[in-house]
Please model this.
Amino acid sequence: MSRIATLRLLALSALLLSSLLASAAFAQTTPTASDQSAVQLLNNAVFMLIVVIVVIALLVIIGGIILVARLRQLDLITRDQRTRLAEIQALYKELQGARKRTESALTMITGKSAELSNTRQELDVSIREALARMTQAVALLPVGENQYRAQDYGGAFATYRRAAELDDNNPLVHYRAGYTSIHVNQLEQAMAHLNRTLDIDADFAPGRAALGYLYRRMGENHEGDERSRANLYDEAERYLNEALMHSRRLLDEDGEAWVATLAGVYRRRRQYDQAIKLYGEASEITPFSSYPYAALALVYADKNDYAQMFKNYERVEWRSRNEISARPTNPWGHANLLLARLALGREDKLVEEEFTLAFLSLPKEGAFILPTLVSSLRRLEWALASAEQPGRAERVSHLLQRISRLTSSKGKEAVQATQVMRRTDSVRAARESDARRATGTQSTSAARTEKSSVDFNDWD
Model:
């Protein structure tokens, strides 16, 4: 019920009540029986009207209460709707911000996608280039190996260094570059390459062994105090032992056992028993190599055990001959055969033959071959003199003098090369005519003596 309807009902009730009151007053002025009856009827009507008015008033009150409650409820609903509307508006604003951020993110993702696409293309190009460099580096390995076998150590070092530049993460390339650089006496380069080898692969045993060999060479070249030299030998021993823990039968690029290199460290420390043991182990690993036996002979010489020295030089003689037969340009084979023939007192012709071939096979860039040969000859000279072989010692001394003259005459290199070739040809011709000379006018020994004297004079 609305407020206007309620007011109208109240006004009608008031009007009806006033009419009834007026009728009652009029009836009192002439109180007849009919009037009394009318008054009674009016009283009843008034009573009924009062009851109606009370009921209406109660209804109005109840309606008002309900209306107030409804108004309060509507107010609460309105407030709740306003709150929700504010939340919706805030959510809408947030959604608008999220949409903008999403659009910005999509724009960024699109840019990143294009950037990633470009990066992927660049990576593809880089990978292809890296694979091409790696392939080229691997292709250079056999080239460097052939150069090394041909004793072109400088060329092999340049090839391996180029391969290392192409593929810096290949331990084999750095190992070979480091190993070859030792032979050309580029020890700083060797250190850099071999350390790089171990940086790439700490368990690469050949690289660790080569680093030990490098420290041994550094110790041999060291001109400072003995303590510093001893420290270098200690490092050599450590690296070689670490490498040999992986494999005792590990070989170097020349086909020799790394155990023999470790034995060389002990020999230089005068730990002869340990050196003998390891050289013996090396001879079992490479039974056809003359190197372990040549080293053993000199170790026994240092121990004054000359019987064992001569016995080992006998082993050296036939092994070095086989090495030379397999590879005539093998400088170590010729050097060892020369030492064996000098130690065993072989005839002059055979000594001269090996002296000639040893110099013919010497590589131009081999930094350690000739000094090692000279050092071995000096030790052999001392050992022969101590073993009461003065004639053999004198022959060694004479060869040392000739080597000194040959190596100091740089201007005669071409002449010396020609003489070497002549000596080789004459030795070959002498071999072919041995049988005929045995039945000729002069004896074989006389012919050899004559030939030997000519060779010595020509070399001088």
The CA atoms of residues 178 and 191 lie 7 Å apart. Residues 410-460 have pLDDT under 50 and may be disordered. The chain is about 85% helix and 0% strand.
